[in-house]
Amino acid sequence: MKLNKIQEQLGVLLNANQRAQLKEKAAIKHLLYKLKKKERHLRARLATCETEEQRKKTATKIAVCHAQREKGLALLKQIKSSQ
Predict the structure, then answer these.
(1) What total number of domains does the chain contain?
(2) Is pLDDT larger for residue 62 or for residue 13?
(3) In Å, how far are 23, 24, 52, 72, 76 from 8, measured between CA atoms?
(4) Rounded to 5 degrees, what are φ and ψ at 55?
(5) What is the distance between the alpha carbons of residues 79 and 67, in angstroms, rounded to a whole number?
(6) Is 45 exposed, middle or buried (0-12, 13-18, 19+ CB in 10 A)?
(7) CA-CA-CA-CA torsion for 55, 60, 78, 15, nearest 10 degrees?
(8) What is the DSSP letter of 49?
(9) SS3 at position 24
(10) What is the pLDDT of residue 57?
């Protein structure tokens, strides 16, 4: 390993704040993955909905899921910029 990479890893180990941010970043990435998967599933279900009421409920769930993903992406971007 190069010296810079070793220093960076040592800094991560010693800096508790940065370590907490890395854990939070990993958790957010995992949640974003799950939300994206759920949104895709809901969009597929929307195509097979038979009644208008089911379509409205599914569309509302898609909108909520999408909004949560956008907020998560904004938070992830904020964490990346602070590092």
Answers:
(1) 1
(2) 62
(3) 16, 19, 55, 26, 21
(4) -60, -45
(5) 19
(6) middle
(7) -90
(8) -
(9) helix
(10) 95
Residue 76's domain comprises: 3-82
Give the model confidence (pLDDT) of 48-75 as tens digits: 999 999 999 999 999 999 999 999 999 9
Angle at 30 between CA 76 and CA 36, to 5 degrees: 90
Structure tokens at 8: 């960076």
Residue 73: the pLDDT is 95
pLDDT tens per residue, range 21-56: 888 999 999 999 999 999 999 999 999 999 999 999
Residue located via tokens 């895709």: 40
Largest CA distance in the chain: 63
